[in-house]
Amino acid sequence: MKNDSVLQSGHTDVIRQKKLKNVLRKSFINHYYININVLGTAVTLLGKTISLCQKEEVERIAWETPSIWHVNNKLELNF
Known about the structure:
This protein has helices at about 5-25, 50-65; strands at about 35-40, 40-50, 70-75. It is about 45% helix and about 30% strand.
């Protein structure tokens, strides 16, 4: 049996991840090649963007997510 706090944390991570994806869908960013992983207060961004502006905008959106304290931006530029 898992600890309730672990289950709560995993559920919260999924909610934050979905919220971030929804914000990206509503933005000008081509979000189809971007993966977002949330673990606790950290976000890891993986995938490709078509410009430095989009890469920075995705990171900015991640930082503005409540309860996120760390953003690891591993997005690559794909010209």
